[in-house]
Amino acid sequence: MKAAVLHAYNTPLRFEEVPNPVITEPTEVIIKVAGAGVCHTDLHIIEGIWAETLDQKLPYIIGHENAGWVHEIGSAVTNFKVGDPVILHPVSSCGKCLSCRSGEDMHCENMKFSGLTVDGGYAEYLKTSERALIKLPENVDPVDVAPFADAGITAYRAVRKAAPFAKPGTKVVMIGMGGLGHIGVQVMRELGNSDIITVDRDEQRLNSTLELGASHIVKADDQMISQVKKLTDEKGADIIIDFVGSDQTHLDSMKMLRKGGHYFVVGYGGTVNVPSLNIINNEFSIVGSLVGNYNELYELMELYARGKVKLHFTKFPFEQANEVLELLSKGKINGRAILVP
């Protein structure tokens, strides 16, 4: 099969013929990839940021946002048949550890994470497990939903955590209206009751959020903090969800958060630096949020099938993976990019 393979960090992917994946366990499934989402995490993997954390041996195939059709099944697979359209949770979990038994499969002690710890979806075929698959409704094209497998459930999980605090009369600030943020706004509209204030540098992205459920938009410039304060009666936001996670957004968020407020950190790359006295005196809650679990992906697919959540995406030929990654690194991808083999 054709695949885009990472041979060395900080180098372009190589397009080459590699062996097709082979089923070795009875619960494994081979997927014919319809679309693979392109994520900032892919950039971080190529840059080597995850190298020590994952202890991954090169070369391997990246790509953790995947959807397609069942191509081959192991002898113990009972819930899927060849040809079924599916979206893949990025984690193949064991189902036996305490994290799996509590439903938090992304914390599985024995996980295989497509595109991070095992070969991913920048290829024609991908091996995963039956536990990772969610069957799609017949009216849903797998290629159109691939980015929900990570970007979608990452945004969904963060908003789901924040939703109990998003009561009528509260204000939520959502920072970064790119691939995750534009999904997060729609989910907050469905699950929460806060007035939604979106923040971004790009006016086009900001204006689009007004159609998705935002009440107010604020451009990320030197007037941002004062504008957010004005929109929150000078008290600050009750909730901030940060899809960027830079040093600057961390710093700004702590200046925009009201006493007793909740700050959810989704994007990463920066460092949250807050004096402990400020946390105590203001009773700030600072919460990290990882990729969502299997049930959250199922719930998000239900919202999508009902037309409650839309995905802004652009399709690219598989062979343009390096060019698309370069565009993403320069901030020139609006919404999500999907590679089509």
UniProtKB/TrEMBL annotation:
<dbReference type="InterPro" id="IPR013154">
    <property type="entry name" value="ADH-like_N"/>
</dbReference>
<keyword id="KW-0560">Oxidoreductase</keyword>
<dbReference type="InterPro" id="IPR020843">
    <property type="entry name" value="ER"/>
</dbReference>
<dbReference type="InterPro" id="IPR036291">
    <property type="entry name" value="NAD(P)-bd_dom_sf"/>
</dbReference>
<feature type="domain" description="Enoyl reductase (ER)">
    <location>
        <begin position="10"/>
        <end position="339"/>
    </location>
</feature>
<dbReference type="InterPro" id="IPR002328">
    <property type="entry name" value="ADH_Zn_CS"/>
</dbReference>
<dbReference type="GO" id="GO:0004022">
    <property type="term" value="F:alcohol dehydrogenase (NAD+) activity"/>
</dbReference>
<dbReference type="GO" id="GO:0008270">
    <property type="term" value="F:zinc ion binding"/>
</dbReference>
<protein>
    <recommendedName>
        <fullName>Alcohol dehydrogenase</fullName>
        <ecNumber>1.1.1.1</ecNumber>
    </recommendedName>
</protein>
<keyword id="KW-0479">Metal-binding</keyword>
<keyword id="KW-0862">Zinc</keyword>
<dbReference type="InterPro" id="IPR013149">
    <property type="entry name" value="ADH-like_C"/>
</dbReference>
<dbReference type="Pfam" id="PF08240">
    <property type="entry name" value="ADH_N"/>
</dbReference>
<comment type="similarity">
    <text>Belongs to the zinc-containing alcohol dehydrogenase family.</text>
</comment>
<dbReference type="InterPro" id="IPR011032">
    <property type="entry name" value="GroES-like_sf"/>
</dbReference>
<dbReference type="Pfam" id="PF00107">
    <property type="entry name" value="ADH_zinc_N"/>
</dbReference>
